[in-house]
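The following block was generated as part of the benchmark described in Methods. Ligand: 2-oxoglutaric acid.
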Amino acid sequence: MKNFWDKSQNDDDNERLNHSGFDICQKDSPPFKLKPPLHVTNRERRKQSMKGQSITVLRPGMVLMKGYISSADQVSIVKTCRELGIGDGGFYQPGYSCGRKLQLKMMCLGKNWDPESRMYTELRPFDNSKPLGIPEKLHDMVEKAIQDSNEFIRENVGGSNEGKVIPNMSPDICIAKFYTKSGTLGLHQDKDESEKSIKKGLPVVSFSIGEYAEFIYGETRAANEAEKVILESGDVLIFGGKSRLIYHGVTCILPDTAPASLIEATNLLPGRLNLTFKMF
Ligand SMILES: O=C(O)CCC(=O)C(=O)O
């Protein structure tokens, strides 16, 4: 069946679509890969170990966990997403009903989210593929991140915890996005989940891997009034509770910022992988 969004128009896709889904990693590693000079490897290692983790509450219900995902876990997430993404139901280039294409590749796990109708469906409308399940390891990482952020809030944020802690959730949706270097995502709210889920403030949990992104968020769709944070490889951003319906978007990807060790271990293409987890 012809792809609804006619992949053939995307030159860069063509080369990568020998599989049914877009390959987020360089297909074949060069046979003789020159190792980076020792001082570069050492600098990278120092950066990784010095990076440490830090947690910041950006606003009630919105928590940024810097460096939360270990380098080893980042590697295994990229490998898992690559493997799932090249098969049926894998990465494709989505579009909106107006015909405009999103500046990224997408793959849904758990449930399919259709950007055209802005609805969740069991099958992907253009090829009837059934989304694969969310790997258990990712599921556990999401639950742990919520617990850790709540532990931080209880210990560090003064006053009553009411309205400050993030509601627990067990994700049944994972939307994986791969932004190439020109990738962006306009300011929007995540509000296609069930009324119950949104009312309870069940959080959106977002993992960033690869190149850094400029992420903006705010009360309204006005980009000039939005706050900005840089999401680096290994960061986790959570927004639930009072921040569940915050407007958010990605204004740009910062080139050449992915950790060299991640690229070396995975051959990830230049770009950024984002996994967004939610509960319907
Ligand atoms: O890539 C990101 O950090 C944001 C993703 C996002 O906003 C979404 O999936 O709705």
